[in-house]
Specification:
- This protein is α+β, with helices and mostly antiparallel strands.
- A nine-stranded mixed beta sheet has the order 17-18-16-19-15-14-20-13-21. Strands 3, 4, 5, 6, 7, 8, 9 and 10 form an eight-stranded mixed beta sheet that branches. A four-stranded antiparallel beta sheet has the order 2-11-1-12.
- α2 packs antiparallel against α10.
- The longest helix has about 45 residues, at about 315-355.
- The two termini are about 60 Å apart.
Length: about 950
């Protein structure tokens, strides 16, 4: 028997259709647009921390992998006891010790087994006593006896055979360069002294080898193993002698004990960087401290059974990386805060648009007894159904597209991306229900004006604005005083955003004033379009604060980011120009290398060369002091120039320009003026040199001649030198005139210039400004930070476009209805386009002017606390031609985004008018009075 239906009147009826599904089916385009906006915003938020982690990891690996092998290598050395006779130096014993030590390095230190080397070597070089060995100045050559393991794996045998031998009859190999310089060949016998007797030790050369990878750590850590060196012996006179290496076989290694007491066993390990991440710097420092002077060093000493010492410069490489990262991160944080603020405002505008479109619906629900909680929960369900899947998809796309440097699945933590995605999703979910609940918390009357002209700021808004003003002032003051050194102070990084926020609030308060000023003269114009447009602009809803805020923040971020990138490019250009002195520089690799007589004319005739300036530079000239002999010694370069060409160069580069007449020739120079030591040469000096020489003539003795100089002008820089101190004189007044450098101006082809120089002399080198500039961008940290800034500028522009479109869409129904009514009164399509354009332009122009002024004021306001040096140049201050890279306002970054906003607004308004004109007016007129 079927159960009777319940007749309880208090049982709630089931809804015919779920709220969320019904609403999403009713407005699928709006849901898709919200999903797309959340997807893009969440993707950017999730990808940002992964991109930062990626370029930081690439930077650490790059610094370790590109460092000089002698700096990055981990070398364990242990002196060999005097009583050692050879059993402890057997190849198997050393191999076992090497494997044991390699396993004792603490994580995250890993070493490359293919590049691990061990052996025995003499710390002190031993002389070769054979009379047939080359002796440039009568001094015998000195040899390092070394038995590196794995010689057959790192060298190719060219002649003879690989060494074998024993301790009693040692054998060795030499590289091809050593054999050529020391006149060695297979079968040669090199005799070195025996420390215990008069009979020397005979080392037989069995083969000549060629390094397979000369720049690999196996050969590069000790360059003497592959390439002999002609070393000077400084005494009463400088004499030269050869230094070279004999590569003993591992079995012959004990023979080194008989040559000198300074013999050690070494274990050389090359660190691997492929597994390291940017977050491993602290662990790496702790591991290196333990290995060089902590518990792990004690374990290594036990393994090698000696008083071993681990030496490395890897910790200095890590410290340099950390200092660059700490200098760049706060600058990047400024861009992150800027674009994050713009994205948040755009998301809030999206919620405002949805609330405005559904205002009548929500008001009807409230009038029929719907609670705020019920409305808020249902709207929360709507936005959650759209935003949560979009945010999850964005997170997956970010993880899939922004991979670790090695392409693996691990290495980048997921936590920051999840938090960023959750924040975007949370804002997207809450903005609609919160705004709806706040707006409909109490009944509202229809027909009341809610526009910028009549809206009066509440007390809460005033308190909020004053609070933000205090925060902005504090952030700016902190940034100017402390700079960006404190990477944990996010208030400092948010200073540009706070300044833009305050400016936007000020613009909202003053917005009615220009409209009122323009309304009076507009009434005198013919036609009703102008006055009507201004009236419509003044009646823009008070919610128009958000579009204005979004545009001002976007323009401020673009101006600041563009100024950062322009400052970085300017610093690199000036550093490269100061390093070369011109577009190209020709000179010898050795000081005082004279230029060939016809080189200047040959270079001047090349295509692209606009000017050349020959100079003569003599370094290390001792300078007298006007204080007498009590002053400490000081030396500086003297530069002999041709005043006319050098003045043109200085004027073009901006480095110490001066009138050519300051260095007017005395008419007494050349070889005929050798005895004229009393002639006074006018000179231009750096500040320190000018202070030392004083105001009167001072005697100078140099290789260029003996004369007196008198400082006639002071300049801080000069194109010929990137040093701090210098002394410029007219080259025609020097006794011994010989140009040593040629500074070339113009876009000359580097290959053609080098061909001309090589045809004249093979001892000259060519240095191009463009090539020098490229050396300043050698770290992924720099390029990664620049990409973040470019991305921030692009994302800011995109969000600004979205803000403009949302602002126009919010009032689109009302505008469409207005045009329909006005067309019934005779309004033409051309007038409709003018009306909508003029109505939208005031706010866009205000935002453009405000954003431009805020950006222009923000840059000099924050510039004292921001130094772009480490972002622009790879070297640390003091090791690059420039000591600082200040932030300067870039005019293009200020003007172009502002103009783009105005043009975009006009085009969007024109497009809206065109679309409205294509539709029939009957539909809008039948729709009723849209509010």
């Amino acid at each position: 028997m079927p159960r009777p239906r319940s007749s309880r009147p208090d049982k709630p009826a089931r809804p015919v259709a779920p709220w969320v599904r019904t609403r999403l089916r009713t407005a699928p385009r709006a849901a898709a647009a919200l999903a797309l906006l959340v997807l893009v915003t969440a993707y950017l938020a999730a990808a940002l921390p992964r991109a930062v982690d990626r370029y930081e990891t690439e930077g650490l690996r790059h610094d370790i992998e590109t460092a000089a092998p002698r700096d990055s290598v981990l070398e364990l050395t242990s002196p060999i006891p005097v009583d050692e006779r050879g059993p402890g130096l057997a190849p198997d014993v050393l191999q076992g010790q090497s494997d044991t030590v390699r396993g004792l390095f603490p994580a995250p230190v890993l070493t490359d087994p293919e590049q691990t080397v061990h052996g025995v070597r003499t710390v002190k070089r031993v002389p070769g006593s054979d009379p047939w060995l080359p002796k440039p100045d009568g001094l015998p050559p000195e040899f390092v006896l070394s038995s590196p393991s794995g010689l057959a794996d790192h060298a190719t045998l060219r002649q003879g055979r690989l060494p074998a031998g024993t301790a009693a009859a040692p054998e060795a190999a030499v590289t091809a360069k050593t054999a050529g310089s020391l006149r060695l060949k297979p079968g040669s016998v090199v005799h070195v002294p025996h420390k215990f007797g008069a009979e020397p030790i005979a080392v037989t050369i069995t083969g000549i080898v060629e390094p397979r990878a000369p720049e690999s750590p196996y050969w590069a850590v000790e360059p003497l193993l592959r390439t002999p060196a002609l070393a000077p012996l400084v005494g009463a006179e400088v004499k030269y002698y050869w230094q070279a290496a004999l590569l003993l076989s591992p079995a012959s290694a004990p023979a080194a004990l008989s040559t000198t007491n300074d013999v050690e066993v070494f274990f050389r390990f090359v660190p691997e960087a492929g597994h390291l991440t940017g977050r491993d710097t602290d662990r790496l420092d702790a591991a290196l401290d333990s290995a060089t002077g902590g518990p792990d060093l004690v374990k290594m000493r036990k393994a090698v059974k000696g008083n071993a010492t681990l030496t490395t410069q890897l910790d200095a490489i890590v410290d340099s990386y950390r200092s660059m990262r700490d200098a760049i991160d706060p600058v990047v944080a400024v861009a992150v805060f800027g674009i994050g603020a713009v994205a948040a405002v755009v998301l809030a505008m999206t919620g405002g648009l949805f609330v405005a479109r559904r205002d009548s619906e929500l008001s009807l629900l409230r009038s029929r007894g719907a609670s705020l909680t019920g409305i808020g929960l249902r709207l929360l369900g709507e936005t959650s159904a759209v935003a949560v899947p979009a945010a999850a998809l964005a997170l997956g796309l970010a993880v899939a597209t922004v991979r670790p440097p090695d392409g693996g699945s691990g290495g980048i933590p997921l936590g920051p991306s999840v938090l960023a995605t959750a924040l975007v999703a949370l804002i997207s979910i809450l903005v609609l229900p919160v705004r709806a609940v706040v707006l409909h918390r109490r009944p509202r009357l229809h027909g009341g004006r809610d526009d910028l002209l009549t809206a009066r700021p509440s007390r809460r808004r005033t308190v909020l604005e004053l609070t933000l003003l205090v925060l902005a002032v504090g952030a700016v003051a902190s940034l100017r005083l402390r700079g960006t050194d404190d990477s944990g102070d996010h208030l400092v990084s948010a200073a540009p955003v706070l300044v833009g926020l305050i400016a936007a609030m000020v613009l909202v308060r003053v917005y009615p004033l220009p409209l009122r000023w323009l309304a009076r003269p507009a009434r005198r114009l013919r036609g009703a379009v102008g006055p009507l447009a201004l009236a419509r602009a003044g009646r823009a809803p008070s919610s128009g604060t958000l579009p204005l805020l979004a545009l001002v923040l976007a323009l401020t971020t673009a101006a600041f980011g563009g100024s950062v990138l322009a400052g970085v490019a300017d610093a690199r250009d000036r550093a490269a120009l100061l390093a070369t002195g011109a577009d190209a520089r020709i000179g010898g690799s050795v000081e005082w290398t004279p230029l060939p007589a016809g080189l200047t004319a040959s270079v001047r005739g090349l295509k692209g060369v606009r000017d050349v300036a020959p100079v003569q530079i003599e370094y290390g000239v001792s300078l007298p002091s006007h204080q007498g002999t009590s002053a400490p010694p000081m030396s500086a370069p003297i530069v002999g120039v041709e005043p006319d060409s050098y003045t043109r160069l200085a004027n073009r580069t901006g480095f110490g320009p001066f009138p050519a007449g300051l260095l007017a020739s005395t008419g007494r120079g050349g070889e005929d003026a050798v005895a004229d030591t009393e002639r006074v040469l006018p000179a231009i000096a750096s500040p320190a040199v000018a202070e030392r020489l004083g105001e009167g003539p001072m005697d100078v003795i140099a290789a260029a001649g003996s004369f007196r100089v008198q400082v006639v002008a002071v300049r801080s820089t000069t194109p010929a030198l990137d040093d701090a101190d210098f002394l410029l004189v007219n080259g025609a007044d020097l006794t011994h005139r010989s140009d040593t450098q040629l500074l070339v101006t113009g876009p000359v082809d580097g290959a053609a210039l080098r061909a001309v120089v090589e045809a004249e002399s093979d001892s000259l080198a060519v240095k191009l400004r463009t090539e020098e500039r490229a050396t300043y961008v050698d770290s992924p940290l720099q390029s990664g930070a620049e990409r973040i800034y470019l991305g921030a500028i692009g994302a800011g522009a995109a969000f600004a476009m979205v803000a403009v479109l949302l602002s126009l869409l919010q009032s689109a129904p009302e505008r469409t209805t207005l045009l329909a009514r006005l067309r019934t009164m005779g309004l033409t399509r051309k007038q409709a386009r003018r009306l909508l354009g003029l109505e939208a332009l005031p706010q866009a122009v205000l935002a453009a002017l405000g954003g431009t002024l805020v950006g222009w004021a923000t840059v000099p306001l924050l510039a004292p606390g921001i130094d772009l040096f480490r972002l622009a140049l790879a070297a640390a201050p003091g090791f690059a031609p420039l000591d600082s890279a200040p932030l300067r306002a870039d005019p293009w970054s200020l003007v172009l985004p502002a103009l783009a906003v105005v043009v975009l607004t006009g085009l969007a308004a024109a497009g809206q008018a065109w679309w409205a004109g294509r539709r029939s007016s009957i539909q809008e007129l039948r729709a009723g009075d849209a509010r």
